[in-house]
Write a structure and sequence with these properties.
homodimer, about 230 residues, alpha/beta, seven-stranded mixed β-sheet, two-stranded antiparallel ribbon, 8 helices, 11 strands, INH-QAR (chains A, B), DJ-1/PfpI family protein (chains A, B), DJ-1/PfpI (chains A, B), Class_I_gatase-like (chains A, B)
Chain lengths: ~230, ~230
């Protein structure tokens, strides 16, 4: 902790997060040299992902050290955090001291609710991208978006691309390329349905219909968070 | 458990595994309809990954139900399992009843040590691919390899491609495509260094040199496991 040359990266580990939003970047960050990765939550109990995986925090809000990089993943549990002042205050406090303030997937909406994306270009999961504007951010339809010291990734699996970009920004290209080769990150998706841009129209409609109730619930939370910020 | 229409998928969660080998496929499998995903280890204590993430098993060797799909991830902890008869017996027992016997990364070497890849085409992490031959498998330099009911993925991040292929095989293409769009799996690696095929020669040498001690330790374990199988 007192080794000032060690880079400290903290990922928020919250109930009902989408675990791959966190585990993808963790795998990349934890391979960087002279780096300590923290999994942060309010207490030390196992945190259960939206699909039932239990992961243990390594630090709490009270014991979390100063972070060089703070990263907020997403997932349905994000909705409850949009008005959770304890979490938003924690994020604000650490972001003010961090070199990079980052998110994956709908974690960007939490950053927005904390008032940290006002006037910044940002991205999030494609199905919620428009909601960033309600929080004063400028939505950008891209996989990874950097604007000054904010770096945001798109949906779920973008976390791997995002984290390699963050590592390149901090440690240089060679370190990121080394990690990419070690992780054999040479993706070959079996289908081209990974984006609204490439998915068939009927598949896109199917997924939009399935997601509609969640997206509406999220939108209402975003609207309330935007009102709170103005208040 | 008694719902015979529910598909049961079990992932081995072992000490010093590479967590993304497991968490990538978990994220895909857990999104499939009418599916229960199990994280299996000898006991219920948290299991620590090679880079310090603690994940909780959901079932033990004793309580694990019959599996439709068994999946063995990889990572340095794989080396100790190559001669761990308790684990190899568990894998053999469940594989005999499973519809699909699968692995990600160096999990293929564990399947091989259990005698389950003899005469099968298979793949694993690029840096250990040749070791499959010592266990009687036919190494194939591909991201995902299917031979009869064995499906093996290459290194770490291949687990996502692998899992989408498994889901397509079980549930059909539409389900896999739906999950791919939900996970926004439209990868854009920031570099082209994810494979020995595409990485620069000096980078490849750098990574090979770094990995050499681990690969040699692994090779000795593979040689011993091959001898045990013959014995």
């Amino acid at each position: 902790m007192t080794d000032s040359s060690c880079i400290s990266i903290g990922l928020l580990l919250f109930p009902a997060l989408t675990q791959l939003d966190l585990t993808g970047p963790y795998e990349v960050f934890a391979r960087a040299p002279n780096t300590k990765v923290h999994l942060i939550w309010k207490n030390s109990e196992p945190v259960i992902s939206d699909r039932g995986m239990a992961i243990l925090p390594t630090v709490t809000f009270d014991t979390c050290p100063k972070l060089d990089v703070i990263c907020i993943p997403g997932g349905p549990g994000q909705i409850d955090l949009m008005e959770d002042e304890e979490t938003l205050s924690f994020i604000r406090h650490h972001s003010a001291q961090s070199k990079l303030v980052t998110s994956v997937c709908t974690g960007a909406l939490i950053l927005g609710a904390a008032g940290l994306l006002q006037g910044y270009k940002a991205t999030t999961h494609w199905a919620s991208l428009d909601q960033l504007a309600l929080l004063g951010a400028e939505p950008v339809n891209a996989r990874v978006v950097r604007d000054r010291n904010r770096i945001t990734g798109a949906g779920v699996t973008s976390g791997i691309d995002f984290a390699l970009s963050v590592v390149a920004a901090i440690y240089g290209d060679n370190v990121a390329q080394n990690i990419q080769l070690n992780m054999e990150y040479d993706p070959e998706p079996p289908f081209t349905s990974g984006s609204p841009r490439t998915a068939a129209a009927d598949l896109l409609k199917q997924v939009k219909d399935q997601l509609a109730p969640l997206i509406e619930k999220r939108r209402l939370a975003t609207v309330r968070a935007a009102a709170n910020k103005m208040g």
